[in-house]
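Exam revision sheet. Question 4 asks you to relate a sequence to its structure. Input first:
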Amino acid sequence: MNTNSKMKLPIVLSILIGLSGCRTEPAINERPPVMGNLDLGKYAVGYKTVFAYDQTRNGVPYSDWDGNLTPNHQVELGRQFQINVWYPAKHGSGDRINYSHYVDLRGRQTNFGESEEQRAFAKKTMIDQTEGLGNVTVGVIGGTKEDFTSEHLDQLLELDVYGRLNATPINEKFPVVVYPNGGSPAFQSITCEYLASHGYVVVAFTPKGRFSSGMEISSIGLEVAVDDFEFVLGKMSEQLNVDMDKVAFLANAISSSVGAAAVSRNEKIKALISLEGGLPSAFEQGLLNESVFYLPENITVPILIIYSNHPSIDPEYTFQLKYADKYYARFSGMSEFAMLNYGMFDAFVQDILGKHKGNTQKGFEEAHQLVLRFLDQKVKGKTKELFDASFLNSRTEIDSTFVLEGLPTPPNIAVLKDLFMKDGFEEIERIYRELKENGNLQPYSMAFYKDYRSWLAWQKDEAYTYRQRLYALGCDSYPESARMNYYLAYYSMLTDQNELAIKHYNKALALADNDPDLSASERENMIRYSKSDLEELN
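Answer key, structure tokens:
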């Protein structure tokens, strides 16, 4: 046995391994030591891997975190997806596996075949990436860490896991939780097994980039990852045991921003969980806002944001998601990647990511208990309060919590078009006033005015009166917007409301130079046209 001081092999695991190296079959539903004190549910857990190709896109080579490429041997078959699925299963069914099964799959992300070469590649990747994550973590929490070696990895590979390979599924439909991660399935398997035991089908995959397996850290990268998510969700819809009306997105690190981008596009998602993700950071909010597909006003589902102390993280960066009920919980003694399996691995390889201020196992357990409560409440419809005193008082690693309720949500643009056709523009104004009275001071988004104006322009507003009324609402919500003032002035001029036109042209000119929403060419044109129209009006 390795006697490195960093190793803490539990006695129970030594007994399971035995002197001969053979493991005895555990009793049905026995708790593996790696599950710690997690409150496992009533279901046994089955596990399977689905290898699939998206034939509408090209295959990609494997890329490590440094950008080194490993060729793909079957690129012509399409974009590769290794889809890892945990599900409620019948007790006693399926084959027993250990953690090495999940690690081996790390080597089969793009080249699906099994071989000793592939297993060696997977182990090296796991060692390199664990070491890399540890170096990032100690930079945040301070202190030092020992190297993560092949001997340390061997210690983890022998750990029993709760999932059983190809176990018989329960013949019911269960909510779906999608949990993408660049280290899937080895980084998040404990989370997936835990949630599956409580009646969820949990799906893990690795989002890829356009040209390699490495996800691109850019606005394009987020959108490509959303495309990957939707392919995976489509494959899951083919399964008999999933309830596609109850889908949640769970994510760590930058994948939480992939989740926000996905929610903005896909109404199938009913809840979003940022488990120590980068969503509450200026950098990732910047990436999201650069995407033409991402609209914060489209995010109306409840969001749980679990975070710890980090110089780049601040909950205020998510306050702009004003239509979502947002639940915040701070774990000050944890760090980003300790919310992955590493939080539990500390019990077997001490300080695997560096020394933390708090207890990583307890922090992991309490965060996941909170995740389960949130999913049960928001996806399954249970009514228990998320942050009730009885729950929080028994938790030691949750530093603080708070809730921001979402504002009343306007109908989507398709509904607002239909209402106009049936009831006229008065209904658009009535909804606006009602939302303002209920606390939403900007009921319609900036993007809405542009899209609705273009729609009205096609044979629905020949006298320009509806567009003039539209931009009166826009100026009421965004009085400091040069664009809103310009268009109110323009349509006021076209409807012979000259004094109003002069007033708002002058205001548009006063605001144009400092309006960050205008491009250089928009600003130049707006100033030129405003001055020209003012000369005519005067």
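Marking note for examiners. Residues 70 and 152 are 25 Å apart (CA to CA).
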